[in-house]
Amino acid sequence: MLRHIAFSAALLLAVSPALAGGVEVSQAWSRATVRGASVAAGYLTVDNQGGAADVLKGGVSDRADRIEIHQSREENGIMTMRAVPKGIEIKPGQQLVLKPGGYHLMLIGLKSAFLPGETVRVTLQFEKAGDVGADFKVVGFGATGPEGAKPAEK
Ligand SMILES: [Cu+2]
After folding, report:
1. pLDDT band at 20, cuts 50/70/90?
2. Ligand 1 centroid vs 106 CA: distance in angstroms?
3. Domain locations in the chain?
4. Average model confidence (pLDDT) across the chain
5. Per the CB 3.0–4.6 Å rule, which of 23, 85, 103, 134 could disulfide with 28?
6. Cα of 80 to ligand 1 centre, how many Å?
7. What does pTM read for this prediction?
């Protein structure tokens, strides 16, 4: 029995490297920036596999002064974005996708340019799951998705 539990735990770790407190983070990506750019957007998918709602509240990274959660929306034909300081709630069993044109992380005050092919480490902050590390894969300037990124495993 004990061996079975240990095996299950190892398997879970193997397929879900970023599962913490019922929250699984995958498909984290960002676009390359030009030298001197002060902001970058971060996108990711969060699956709440726990039994309670959680809230993505923001994050921190040593690559930026601060990170805010923003929401882009089209109003009267103009794309605008606003900060969402209270965070985004994710109900049990729900999947939250931060993507271009919707919710995104805004990394503000970049310390250096994001280069294609590198990864940017961000510590995401959840109300219940706490701190969850994620490596954001940096893709080309015009990318609309995490090309070549490992798909979320089920
Ligand atoms: Cu923004």
Report:
1. low
2. 5
3. 2-139
4. 87
5. 134
6. 9
7. 0.81
